[in-house]
């Protein structure tokens, strides 16, 4: 029976364990959005993960949603990330890059006055975005026309090419958490008509076009996808999240991906339901679970065949040696939320390793 410490074939790579590092936005790339030495140190410290999935990274210039998140749209970005991949590989690790477009979660104050884009003319409600001028309300996005969408797909394909040049082992397409691909996918933010609105097939069209484009660069066995059918983060909702998850799981079999990465719940508890069971029943590939797993629950889910691996977020943030701690049943460092997005090494590279 497999367990947390069993090897796992993930597309073209072999993970030495099933304790994966979830993508975590940490805002350490500065105003240039270029990965740096501090980020290389951070990721190399966590190279014992079965797979590191690096943080959400801008596929295209002018689409910042977090102010100091990294990008992968220029030669300078490739060179910055090459420092990271070299450091992780030197430490024996494997690392995928999560490629991302923020859509309506972006803000003009983060992008030289540029209006964000989205599936429909709806701003994110009930939250504000951090900007150089303080917290500001989100704005109504420019609605992408059908004719503008091929440029988005091309931007993801270029990002995939750049990620390959930067030495990553693969990429994860970010289709979760209310960002652009998710805005098209869920009916709470997509009231379009035409080729990209209405039916499930049409709402998923952009996601599928992006996957097809990046598969041409990498081969599908080095491409993953992250989804969050229940998560209401970024003011998201769907009228039938379980139905959406079930349909999507079946259709994704056509793409022969390295893995599907599922956020199983809702950060805010607004939407409830079991999306894991129908996805496991219908999706034939490697399934990674995420959101709130304890080591005990994660181990049981893998042994029982509910998941193939589990991605840990804040536990990996605070414990660079998380697999070793799990194996030794050692105590865990507690994460400090005050330093999640602050600049510098505090709460980033200074969490202690276990001295067992």
Structure overview:
The chain has 356 residues and is of the alpha/beta class. It has a single domain, classed as Aldolase class I (TIM Barrel, Alpha-Beta Barrel). It is 30% helix and 16% strand. It has helices at 37-45, 75-90, 149-165, 180-185, 200-203, 205-218, 241-252, 276-282, 295-303, 314-318, 322-328; strands at residues 8-10, 13-15, 19-21, 52-58, 95-100, 117-118, 128-131, 134-137, 142-143, 170-175, 223-227, 259-263, 287-290, 309-312. The strands form four sheets. It has an eight-stranded parallel β-sheet with strand order 3-14-13-12-11-10-5-4. A two-stranded antiparallel ribbon has the order 1-2. Strand 13, helix 9 (295-303) and strand 14 (309-312) form a beta-alpha-beta unit. Helix 3 packs parallel to helix 6. The longest helix is centred in the middle third of the chain and has 17 residues, at 149-165. The relative contact order is 0.15.
CATH topology: TIM Barrel
**First CA to last CA: what distance?**
28 Å
DSSP strand tally: 14
Poorly predicted segments: none
